[in-house]
Design a protein that fits this description.
heterodimer; A: alpha+beta; Naphthalene 1,2-dioxygenase Alpha Subunit, Chain A, domain 1; 8-stranded antiparallel β-sheet; 14 helices; binds FE2/S2 (inorganic) cluster; binds fe (ii) ion
């Protein structure tokens, strides 16, 4: 633990002990103190649009059935049978009014209630021996939604989701609420990469600096209208609440002109104007910044970009939401969804999807080069030499902590939080500082739930 | 059908159901597989083997020339669903849902000097087996299905990776030879165990 204390102290100075990107002990702490506490994205309401629809999603090893019950209520059930612990649902999506455990046949309604218990009388002596009444699959300790995005927290004492998101909600709306209809999500594509989960989260949060180098090839083949990837340094990064991201600087013009520049048809622009606040519109129309990549602590990222999708001058914008699901210190499962405004014209939806496939996801031409770097970084971080190396993550800051570029004034950036033009690692530091906050704070042992007994709760209150 | 799970649509129909396959050829297989001695089967098998050498050697420009202008190249995302649910691909999502333009951009990128994911290049081997050929209602077209296993090795630290898949191809007669007009790749994993699909199958 002493060792981690110095790790966290270094991280807070913007100096990163390289081994945190591949270290079993660090990962054990992340599991115990970060993922057991933070709000974690599981699904979007559009993925479970009808009663009975469900998807199975994990928070590390914990599997949850995220479902819409017959009354339309969204629930997340821990996917473990109350009897002997079998996984109740083994499909990853579908529609079901009930879930029947394959082991001994206990069955649960999709609201989680235990409704079928074979031989209840013969085997247990009925309610006397096993209280079936009121038993339900263990619900996620906390569940809340924002713009249809379903988050859960394993911490019963978690702060309200709205507080956790804080002012990052302002930016989330650009990705997830372009009209009153919100977004629909498709996918995810899922694949495993031998890379630490933090690298992707940091990259999407604020790494505009990698674009001209890592993504040269995508610019060279004419996928982007902008001739030079160096354009990125004219954009700004922002941080607000528990998330932050990057933007591109748009050419001069008004709001409509700038939204058309990235490829939105006028009817979508009208809906944006009816949906977003004056400040949200001002960031684009007055300040000239268009959101690009972003991350919400700890492991959810977003991207918005506008490539060409055919042999013409036109570009088409797309949105992807992705989760960096940790498998181990050196392995991550990427879940990458395509998101699109539910009220967008069908033709736009199809072309936006095409833009997504060309750029991001398992086959995306951006993503391919990103992942190659992250895998190399992770394997290099495993050894003893990486333990001697403190990487400098202080970009944008002078030795005394003064900023290289001053914060944008409210006149130049209408969004909440802090923002500054150019390359910097402010957002990566924000992310890792939160990571350190969690890792240094011990967790309270959660109360155990007892199945089938009179009071249903272990009086000792410990696991 | 052989490439999909029980009760799910035939693989040849997935192109029509995909988001971007609107302009793809709809010709479907008919009847039982052709005898292995049939000239059309022999040609199709040879075509697939020749193609696999191009793909393993990353001779992607030559490979592009084997595709028709209206080609649809589809690799759905497989999902784990309950038996009897009627589907085992992700609705509205694929790994590849490509036309000639998007494939040509992917190839063009590999030809730049800055596609880092393939610099240094992977060592690739495409194994093609279980080839069966079917006639269609149109003498210009045959359907050929195959199993493919891709072995990919990068560098000297990382473990190698595999992708196993079934494919159904629509081959169209073109002069002396044939070109690929439609390919549907049914990956055998729902979660791909490869760092990216910067390869073709
Ligand atoms: S473990 Fe589920 S019924 Fe026994
Ligand atoms: Fe990138």
């Amino acid at each position: 633990m002493t060792e981690q204390t110095s790790v966290l102290r270094d991280v807070r100075r913007g100096m990163i002990p390289a081994h945190i990107y591949n270290d079993g002990a660090v990962f054990a702490l992340e599991k115990e103190r970060l993922f057991s506490r933070a709000w974690v994205f599981t699904a979007h309401e559009s993925e479970i649009a009808k009663p009975g629809d469900y998807v199975v999603r994990r928070v590390l090893e914990d599997s949850f059935i995220v479902t819409r019950d017959e009354k339309g209520e969204i629930r997340a059930h821990f996917n473990m049978c109350l009897h002997r612990g079998m996984q109740v649902c083994r499909a990853e999506l579908g529609n079901a009014s009930h879930f029947r455990c394959p082991y001994h046949g206990w069955s649960y309604r999709n609201d989680g209630r235990l409704v079928g218990l074979p031989f209840h009388q013969d085997a247990y002596g009925g309610e006397e021996g096993f209280r079936r009444k009121g038993q339900r699959l263990l619900p996620a300790p906390n569940l809340a939604t924002y713009n249809g995005m379903i988050f859960i927290s394993l911490d019963p004492q978690a702060p309200p989701l709205a507080d956790y998101l804080g002012d990052f909600r302002f930016y989330l709306d650009y990705y997830t609420k372009q009209s009153s209809g919100g977004i629909e999500l498709r996918g995810p594509q899922r694949w495993r990469i031998k890379a630490n989960w933090k690298i992707g989260a940091e990259n999407f949060a604020g790494d505009m600096y990698h674009t001209p180098q890592t993504h040269t090839s995508v610019v060279e083949i004419g996928l982007f209208r902008e001739p030079k990837a160096e354009k990125r340094k004219d954009g700004c990064t922002y941080w607000a609440g528990n998330g932050g991201g990057t933007t591109y600087k748009l050419p001069p013009g008004g709001l409509d002109e700038r939204l058309r520049y990235v490829g939105y048809p006028q009817e979508m622009i009208e809906r944006m104007k009816a949906t977003w606040s004056p400040e949200q519109l001002a960031v684009i129309g007055d300040n000239g910044f268009m959101i690009s990549a972003a991350s919400l602590f700890p492991n959810l990222s977003f991207v918005h970009n506008w490539p060409r999708v055919a042999d013409s001058e036109d570009v088409l914008p797309f949105i992807s939401i992705r989760q960096w699901q940790p498998i181990g210190a050196d392995e991550t499962e990427v879940l990458s969804w395509f998101a699109v405004d539910a009220q967008a014209p069908e033709e736009f939806k199809a072309l936006s999807y095409k833009a997504y496939l060309m750029c991001f996801g398992s086959t995306g031409m951006f993503e391919q080069d990103d992942v190659e770097n992250w895998v190399s970084l992770t394997s290099t971080a495993a050894g003893s030499m990486a333990r001697r190396l403190l990487l400098n993550s202080r970009m944008g800051m002078l030795a005394d902590g003064a900023p290289v570029t001053p914060d944008l004034s409210p006149e130049r950036f209408a969004g909440p939080g802090s923002a500054r033009v150019g390359y910097s690692e402010y957002n990566q530091r924000e992310l890792l500082n939160r990571w350190a906050d969690h890792l240094e704070r011990p967790i309270d042992a959660p109360a155990a739930v007892e199945v089938g007994t009179a009071d249903g709760r272990n009086p000792e209150g410990c696991a | 059908m052989s490439l999909t799970s029980r009760g799910t649509p035939p693989v040849g129909e997935l192109s029509a159901r995909s988001v971007l396959g609107g302009d793809a050829s709809r010709v479907q297989r008919t009847g039982r597989p052709l005898p292995f001695g049939d000239e059309r089967h022999l040609q199709a098998h040879e075509w697939l083997v020749d193609e696999s050498y191009l793909l393993s050697a990353q001779k992607y420009e030559e490979w592009l020339d084997l595709l028709t202008e209206d080609v649809h190249y589809l690799m759905p995302v497989r999902v784990t669903t309950a038996l009897g649910s009627g589907f085992d691909t992700s609705p509205g999502m694929a790994h590849f849902d490509e036309d000639k333009y998007s494939l040509s951009r992917r190839v063009a990128r590999f030809l730049t000097e800055h596609a880092w994911t393939e610099d240094p290049p992977s060592r690739l081997r495409h194994y093609v087996t279980n080839v069966r050929t079917f006639a269609t209602d149109d003498p210009e077209h045959i359907v050929v299905e195959s199993a493919i296993l891709l072995f990919r090795s990068r560098g000297d630290v990382q473990e190698s990776a595999l992708v196993s898949a079934g494919r159904e191809d629509l081959l169209r007669a073109d002069g002396d030879g044939r070109r690929l007009a439609r390919r549907t790749i049914m990956a055998d994993e729902s979660v791909i165990r490869m760092q990216n699909l910067a390869i073709f199958l």
